[in-house]
């Protein structure tokens, strides 16, 4: 093995970036005492030289061949350890650099997916002091979880300053909002987005059997819960923007029908609503307009930031491209606010969805919901909505079962996105050009993180609720074709006192 030559153009080595080779060299160097134990001096030297050749700074032969002398004086194990061992902080970060930590909360795909939020790189370079930013051509240097968390914090602070300067300028056109991006070494945008897409937890097997018009029906069929769609930093940006809209509405800077803040005359009443795309009437108003979309009332168009959210919903296989939302309503809940039992008006097509922010709350379902008191409702089952999640309503879950939101325990914001029936659109409505032709990303949904509870949890997580009054024979027929799992019959009680907890595996 004397006179070994290691080619830097070896196909195996060329498949890795220089930074990755350096990491491998450092790692293997630390393990050399173990790897070379009981080997002869010559073999130890060969292994040592092969490991050292992985570090790009070692070989500088212009023809791509690094000559490794078998007679060279090898470094002692102690010297190698001192020269090559990363410090404790670096080791700690590397130990957390696993596939499920790459950008779970990173904003890379969020920002890059909406170029309108970013200034061109050339403009960034001009606006910064020379030497502060280094433009990087190689896009695939690995980042630790700690690095990404720090990146988010820095970007968050930067955007806060940008937004402050922007809104103090007096303009509020969402199309003009931009923020400066620091150029960093990171994973390619599509890879970052793919990792985040694969980490979304999806539950689509909600079950609650009730007797409806003499038949046993799963009144929750069609419901979907997608958790982890928006990172903590993304949530904060959206919430901050909602507060900006609320402030504008309270100062009369939005159209009259866009912003509504009723006076609180009883517990649970008076939540602030902000509507875009259309004005929806919940009940007969003082002018005699029936519930539904008001065709002769104008509201502000969907803000740019909310369009970015819509693109995420379609791109990540949450809302189908045949049902791209063209309207939305923001609900700002104070503690104790609620939404009474209802089925969404069919002026809106199915499916539609709700995104949750600030705090978790329950949404209660049942074909026969009852009002027990201010903000208290009785129903068959309650589903908790985690912050940053998207809840999709379709099928029986949207049209057979009613739903309501009991008095929320703390401040909450939700944004509901819906597509209007074309025949019900307001007069003069013009579809948003940048929301046309949206398509989901070409990812394999079968490989995404589906909700897969352990057997010991299934009786809770499948949310099988058999309503009283169903005979044993009917229950047997209802169970046919399903897993042999325990079924539970529950008495009606205020649903905000009982809920079936969903545990999403990470």
Automatic annotation (TrEMBL):
Residues 149-160 have a biased composition (Acidic residues). InterPro entries: AlkB-like, AlkB-like_sf, ALKBH9B/ALKBH10B-like, Oxoglu/Fe-dep_dioxygenase_dom. Residues 77-102, 476-488 have a biased composition (Basic and acidic residues). GO terms for molecular function: demethylase activity; mRNA binding. GO terms for biological process: mRNA catabolic process. Gene3D superfamilies: Alpha-ketoglutarate-dependent dioxygenase AlkB-like. Residues 324-421 form the Fe2OG dioxygenase domain. It comes from the Eukaryota. Residues 70-102, 149-178, 476-506 are annotated as: Disordered. Coiled coil: none annotated. Belongs to the alkB family. PANTHER family: FE2OG DIOXYGENASE DOMAIN-CONTAINING PROTEIN (PTHR31447:SF5), HYDROXYPROLINE-RICH GLYCOPROTEIN FAMILY PROTEIN-RELATED (PTHR31447). This is Fe2OG dioxygenase domain-containing protein.
